[in-house]
Design goal:
Layout: H1 2-8, H2 20-35, E1 44-46, H3 50-62, E2 69-73, H4 78-81, E3 94-97, H5 103-118, H6 123-126, H7 134-137, H8 141-147, H9 178-192, E4 196-198, E5 212-216, E6 219-227, H10 232-250, H11 254-270, H12 272-283, H13 287-307, H14 310-315, E7 319-323, H15 331-342, E8 346-350, H16 356-368, E9 376-378, H17 383-392, E10 398-403, H18 405-422, E11 427-432, E12 436-440, H19 446-458, E13 468-473, H20 475-490
Parallel strand pairs: 1-2, 2-3, 4-6, 7-8, 7-10, 8-9, 10-11, 12-13
Antiparallel strand pairs: 5-6
Helix pairs in contact: 2-3, 2-8, 9-12, 11-13, 11-16, 12-13, 12-16, 13-15, 19-20
């Protein structure tokens, strides 16, 4: 589980060994250190492994050490310890320990121990397997480790290599590492001193005009930056430029287009602390959510770059409008854009009006990566003006939208009318919200239910289209589960999302 979690989280490596023999060797090294310190420590060695037990006994005997004991779990290891305790055996004491509590409380613990001892690599499992020789069972773990050079298991992919040759996994950040936290803190402090700005990023020039402030949803006195919204003239010039460049982008060799997307992903990752700071201050993201925001954006770009092919070129539509939401202002914004670009379409990106600053910086980085302005233009502004003008224009051949169901239906109606007038279908890809329910019956483990409910309902302050809205509990377990749920909710910290202790940040605005 820890190996898989490290892979999913994009960690630099693993917090556990990837070979069983390395675990055995580590145990024995620790045993040596404990035996060397019996003047101040009374060692108690818990093991069901006969080879491990024998090594400890031989080392202790050679050093003249008798001040130690063994331990075994109640109900396990009796066959081994029959050879250890008493004058007929090694005459060493063995302390038997047992978990104490109710069946319900202990079941998960006992299942875990059974899984561990039932694993293929477990000594307890192997000793009853007649296909495994005694020599194999009692082999010296140090000798086996030397044979493999002490290196990790080659068949377990490092987190960066999780997807093999297809693409590199996005890099995560370990928030339990104090040096990493200091680096984040310094980067955030630097970013707070640098006022941000956003404006249309078009193929042509943008006229000078007034901007308006973008404030931190967790602290309305904190002005994150200022944005100049696009106007209808900007929309017109962007559409003209997109139509003029559409064939150039569509006919670009797929490998070249993929390389630009890969380069863009690398630049997003290299600037992740700046993007995280924007996600926190502009969108109210918690630190774990801010990390996930950047990682998902990077993964989107690398994933779609790997899908680029000659076949896609023939299927390109032309100018595509991408309208993204404020709850994933980088991840979904980049996901929509990179999918459209990979398929050979030129993009007019309209970010949510609440989060234009992070979108502006992301598009800047994609332009820096070499994606031409004619292929990707940014048009910040209100949905009912900029978004509406883009969707209604006959030069637009497709719309990708993530947001409310009401707005999606409005866009659908506009495109349907256009399709009748123009005599051609206009593509619409829409992802909207819903009323998501979780139905829990009496077979569910309440601890797991509560953990999942808390995560689904209150992560991102509940501002996800996938967030849990309705919890249906079978009467038999309802009272107990609700008590546990109320207790878990009381432990949640609501506050400024730039604090690591904060579990739930702000909602985006009053609406």
């Amino acid at each position: 589980a820890e190996i898989k979690r490290a892979q999913v989280d994009g960690m630099p490596g693993f917090p556990v060994y990837t070979r069983k023999v390395h675990t055995d060797a580590s145990y024995l090294v620790c045993a040596q250190k404990l035996l060397a310190s019996t003047a101040v420590i009374y060692p108690q060695f818990a093991t069901h492994n006969a080879q491990t037990l024998s090594a400890i006994q031989v080392w202790a005997q050679a050093a003249g050490i008798d001040d130690y004991e063994f331990q075994c779990l109640h109900g396990m290891g009796e066959t081994l310890y029959d050879q250890v305790v008493g004058p007929a055996g090694l005459d060493k004491p063995c302390r038997i320990y047992a978990p104490v509590g109710s069946h319900e409380t202990l079941l998960a613990y006992l299942v875990r121990r059974l899984l561990e001892n039932g694993a293929n690599s477990s000594f307890v499992n192997q000793i009853v397997d007649e296909a495994i020789s005694i020599d194999t069972l009692v082999a010296d773990p140090f000798a086996i480790a030397r044979q493999t050079g002490g290196v990790a298991h080659p068949n377990i992919a490092l987190p960066a290599d999780l997807f093999g040759l297809e693409r590199r996994n996005s890099a995560g950040i370990d928030l339990s590492d104090e040096s990493v936290l200091r680096e984040i803190d310094a980067a955030f402090a630097l970013q707070a001193m640098q006022p941000k700005h956003a404006a249309p990023l078009l193929q042509g020039a943008v006229s000078a005009r007034d901007s308006h402030a973008v404030c931190n949803p967790a602290n309305h006195h904190d002005v994150v930056g200022h944005v100049i919204d696009a106007d209808l003239q900007d929309v017109g010039s962007a559409l003209a430029a997109a139509k003029a460049y559409a064939m150039d982008w569509q006919t670009m060799p797929p490998a070249d287009r993929a390389q630009l997307l890969m380069r863009g992903a690398d630049l997003l990752e290299q600037n992740r602390l700046e993007l995280m700071a924007l996600a926190v201050r502009e969108a109210g993201k918690s630190l774990p959510n801010a990390i996930a925001e950047v990682r998902e954006a990077v993964d989107f770009m690398r994933y779609y770059a790997a899908q680029v092919s000659d076949e896609l070129n023939a299927l390109a539509l032309g100018p595509v409008v991408c309208i993204s939401p404020w709850n994933f202002p980088l991840a979904i914004f980049i996901g929509e854009i990179s999918a459209a670009l990979a398929a050979g379409n030129v993009v007019l990106a309209k970010p949510a009006e609440q989060t234009p600053l992070i979108a502006y910086r992301a598009v800047q980085l994609l332009h820096q990566a070499g994606i031409p302005r004619g292929a990707l233009q940014l048009l910040p502004g209100r949905g009912d003006t900029v978004g509406a003008a883009l969707v209604a224009d006959r030069r637009v051949r497709g719309v990708i939208f993530t947001g409310s169901t009401d707005v999606a239906q409005l866009i659908n109606r506009v495109l349907a009318k256009r399709a009748v007038v123009e005599g051609a279908e206009i593509a619409l890809i829409a992802e909207t919200g819903g009323q998501n329910a979780l139905i829990v019956d009496s077979s569910a483990l309440p601890e797991q239910v509560v953990q999942d409910v808390i995560s689904s309902a209150f992560d991102s302050a509940g501002q996800r289209c996938s967030a849990l809205r309705v919890l249906c509990l079978q009467t038999d377990i309802a009272d107990k589960t609700l008590v546990m749920l109320h207790g878990a909710m009381a432990e949640l910290n609501i506050g400024n999302p730039d604090r690591l202790a904060t579990d739930v940040g702000p909602v985006i605005d009053a609406d």
